[in-house]
Write a structure and sequence with these properties.
homodimer; 478 residues; Uridine Diphospho-n-acetylenolpyruvylglucosamine Reductase, domain 2; Alpha-Beta Plaits; 4 domains; five-stranded antiparallel sheet; globular
């Protein structure tokens, strides 16, 4: 369907004409986008197709946003909240019906306040992770959630993003002190706060409810974030091993010996490593022969070398204790940014190899090696052509089990593989079918399949209380 | 009222006689306590008076507990869940009516499983913090929530306890991977899980709902906890300063220079320090003259000295950079356990001085000094005899604002002071009236006073869903 045609036809008989006028009059040209060309960027999902927005509304303050929600609800309009649209499950993409509005937080940038004494920041939803880190760096501070993308802070909170350094700092949930938001019911009600309290034990907490519920229960307008001292030294190594089992043994030794210095432990299959190295111009293979499995491990510290702490020599000292370990094949200590360049190239390089099928799953670390072996077997049995290029946050038991399949592989075969693999991870390995990407229209069917009745009933009670007409977002948790 | 007389009179006409028989028959003598003498220990609150239990029921497994809840709800009985009864707001104490049952988790000790590869532990609610740490230590691990008391794990989860090392590790919320529990509605329904997943981003989470809601929405049966490597070296200093302002400046420098090593930053007024020193046999004053304010600061590391890291010398090096700071009066580096002995003696020693009035409040760290000055002034104006012996977790903005008042101080004066002080902390300083102790019958009136309508409405919807007859616990969050 041509979305321009679609838009005109809807507009002609739209019952919300008065609404468009009121929004345009208060928010101005920047605040309301109705032309197909202007709307187009807001209709694209980072990974899963496109939708059609009735219109895009972009309030520039929490007051405006609250008013917009009141107007939308009053006009019986349904809407989806969108930040930087970097999410991978479609939770911020409007549906294909053409009736859903996009409430964009792009212009919601009224506060970015660093409090250096409290080591915290109050951030409006529309700022991006990189904006926060630029402002925090001026005070020797950082918001240490490390991701491939540069999402909006509102999106990060709603998605509870994790990333590569969760092993050291935790994810969003562990680093958000408060969330302020707006409800669909009572329409436009302001809830939560921007208070920077590290201890506040007074019952039901909007912060927790709005974090990791994908916008289902309200709109995040501001988040108050814990900041951490910037890292002043980092050392990293790439270690080749003959199996994921050995990688987990090394993880235990690494954490035991290097404790609070541990800041990343990223696993990658030999095929993922090879794909990245071949994809990157001017990068040579770190090992003479591609190993079955490799680990990028990193230590870092906010304490400077001048204080007498030399992390690289501590890392080298520990690596020497590992070199005789059975199954440990090789190790390269290099500049961290060179090793991370390889790690960060995996996703794109695997995609370049052909038709990508991606899974974002996790298990307990103690079951990781067994799960990986089992899933590799399952994939081979279901799709004979598949090349498994898995990589991920091994220190957290998370794995992006990305595979490349022959172009002629049928959709049915992929659907069958997806179902079986999720079933194995959840039912046999007590794991998660969405480790860090969250739940959206893309995987909502699996949410229904794997979520127990009391949880869905409770979510239903919350939907009923906070959004009785079901106008908010495109994720239902009941 | 004599509780023995009371019990007999209730029992004579009790409509729950069949229930008593059924419970006794399935749970045995250890599982059901109905004699006044046996019940007495379960009727006492750690700080706020006593209640009267209809009976005490002590299931020894989650299955038994679920069955007990079903039986209690079926017999229209109301009940309060109790762990080790170390809480300070009365949330685990039965009411005085004599009709409320105590559901004790004391015997719920069916699982204490350490998973060293996953660095986690599955723990039944009835185990205590010290039990977990004893078991974890065998694997070089620890559950690092450091408290004055030795609470049950179920109580810690329900209360979301914080403590002295939250600045480094976070509190319970940041260290609980999963909670399994039992609901009052549907009666006896099992919810949640014991999965040790660090990343699991699949929507509404029982873990978050059961943590820090004081048993209002269900009974915690098991918690899956993150463990951390044990600390292999620790260094500490006691620093005398002329004001809380200077203490906060030192905190900023301390964190900036010593980063991830920082494990505690505890403040105490000169009067609290003096009280502790005078109370402890064989301890001499650390400073020639008691300073207006002092800070116990601690660094620690899981990395051994053998690796080339010497924390004491790093701490000494940093302290030398501070000695010229205006307002920094003196500093003593000593064995950490000797300094902590003083810090831990404060609470008891202040209590020994006379009539204690205690507040557990918090503010943003950047407003701490101003709040402290304001509260000292308020206290002096309201109760002229008051000696302020405040101490607490300065690194988290938390303070136990304990004061000693003349014995003849009227209850009215204390009630007035309490109201005014909470109002100042919440309304003028955007702080919390219960930083870490939580909400119970003791402070529920203040909860009502300071909690906004949407939050209470949402809690009401949860009560209605999870406990429509109001039989669970003695805390209402609506």
């Amino acid at each position: 369907m041509n979305s321009e045609t679609h838009h005109s036809s809807v507009a002609a008989q739209a019952p919300d004409h008065g609404l468009i006028d009121r929004l345009a009059s208060r928010l101005g040209v920047q605040g309301l986008l109705t032309d197909a060309g202007d709307k187009a960027p807001f209709e694209a999902s980072a990974r899963h197709g496109r939708g059609i927005a009735r219109a895009v509304v972009r309030p520039a303050s929490a007051e405006e946003l609250a008013w917009v929600v009141q107007e939308l609800v009053g006009a019986d309009a349904s809407f989806v909240v969108q930040g930087a649209a970097t999410g991978l499950v479609g939770a911020a993409t409007p549906s294909g019906s053409g009736t859903q509005w996009v409430l964009s937080t792009q212009r919601l940038r009224d506060r970015l306040e660093i409090d250096p004494v409290n080591r915290s920041a109050v951030v409006a939803a529309g700022y991006r992770l990189s904006d926060v880190n630029r402002a925090a760096a001026e005070h020797g501070l950082t918001f240490p959630i490390d991701l491939g993308a540069d999402p909006s802070i509102g999106g990060m909170a709603a998605t509870n993003t994790g990333g590569s350094r969760l092993i050291r700092y935790g994810g969003v949930r562990e680093n958000v002190l408060a969330i302020a938001g707006v409800l669909a019911n009572p329409p436009g009600a302001r809830v939560g706060s921007t208070r920077g309290l590290r201890k506040n034990n007074t019952g039901l907490d909007w912060t927790q409810l709005m974090t990791g519920t994908f916008g289902a229960f309200g709109v995040v307008t501001h988040a108050t974030l814990k900041l951490h001292p910037v890292q002043r030294q980092t050392a990293a190594a790439l270690v080749a091993v003959d199996s994921a089992e050995v990688a987990m043994e090394i993880l235990c030794s690494f954490e035991d010996a290097l404790g609070e210095f541990v800041s990343a432990f990223e696993g990658m299959s030999g095929s993922a490593l090879t794909a990245a190295v071949e994809h990157l111009p001017g990068v040579s293979a770190p090992f003479p022969v591609a190993p079955p499995y490799a680990v990028l491990l990193e230590v870092s510290s906010a304490v400077s070398k001048a204080s007498g702490l030399d992390l690289e020599s501590i890392l080298m000292g520990w690596l020497e204790t590992q070199i005789e370990r059975p199954g440990m094949l090789d190790a390269v200590v290099d500049k961290p940014e060179r090793l991370w360049r390889i790690r960060h190239a995996i996703s794109e390089s695997v995609q370049a190899l052909g038709k990508l099928v991606a899974f974002d799953v996790s298990v307990s670390r103690s079951r990781f090696a067994a799960f990986r072996a089992c899933s590799v077997e399952l994939i081979a049995a279901e799709v004979a052509s598949a090349l498994v290029c898995d990589f991920g946050h091994l220190g957290d038991g998370g794995v992006h089990l990305n595979i490349v399949v022959a172009p002629e592989t049928s959709v049915d075969a992929i659907v069958r593989l997806r179902s079986k693999l999720y079933q194995v991870v959840v039912e046999e390995f007590d794991g998660s079918f969405s480790a860090e990407h969250g739940v959206g229209p893309y995987n909502q069917a699996f949410y229904r399949c794997f979520t127990d009745q009391p949880t869905r009933a409770l979510a239903g009670a919350l939907h009923a209380q906070l959004d009785p007409q079901g106008r908010l977002g495109n994720v239902r948790l009941d």
